[in-house]
């Protein structure tokens, strides 16, 4: 059976990283059986990054690569009816979610207004985490942010960038149904991966304030959450 390796749960969400939750939601929506292993150590992962999957003799990393691999191997059809224009929209939204990822991560590990609450939540739900380990992870992430660029923003400017991304999602997500109609597709799984990691968090960032204020985003997130919920 396919095994998904991704970060652990937090605040009742199946993965506290948007990319892992994206893959989790896609597998659930596509009806592909899988085991879910929650880990912190990404040293065995392709490119040293989570999530990744192991399926027989194949080990596949990168969330988009995983979705393409699973679609081919298991003849997944949730995107089969999409038009070329809709597939282009999916690519553009996925790339925008890459940008939102950095702001979300920054809000947890670097923005000192929210770091204490995030640290406390991690320690509460995963008491095996040590102070030293968290300090090293915080320092490592600060380095990543600096070289990516978001770490050179002041907190309010970083949040403004994420709010612009969420504004685009607010304009895209319909009041009813899903991005491309009455049934969810892979882009709905991707959006859920990131929005759920904002909405369900008990940390009142500007990102969460924006999501809560937009009924269409909350409805969409809730619908996908219900569809993929179960043992996490």
Properties at a glance:
232 residues, Glutaredoxin, 2 domains, 9 helices, 4 strands, globular
Task: Characterize the structure shown.
InterPro entries: FAX/IsoI-like, Glutathione-S-Trfase_C_sf, Glutathione_S-Trfase, Metaxin_GST, Mito_Protein_Transport_Metaxin, Thioredoxin-like_fold, Thioredoxin-like_sf. GO terms for molecular function: transferase activity. The chain has about 230 residues and is α+β, with helices and mostly antiparallel strands. The chain has two domains: about 1-75, Glutaredoxin (3-Layer(aba) Sandwich); about 85-230, Glutathione S-transferase Yfyf (Class Pi), Chain A, domain 2 (Up-down Bundle). Helices cover about 55% and strands about 10% of the residues. The protein has nine helices and four strands; from the N terminus they run βαβββαααααααα. It has helices at about 20-30, 65-75, 85-110, 115-125, 130-150, 155-170, 185-200, 205-210, 215-230, and strands at about 1-5, 35-40, 50-55, 60. A four-stranded mixed β-sheet has the order 2-1-3-4, with helices on one face. A hairpin with a 2-residue loop joins strand 3 and strand 4. Helix 1 packs across helix 7 (about 185-200), helix 3 (about 85-110) runs parallel beside helix 7 and helix 7 crosses helix 9. The longest helix is centred in the middle third of the chain and has 26 residues, at about 85-110. The mean pLDDT is about 95.
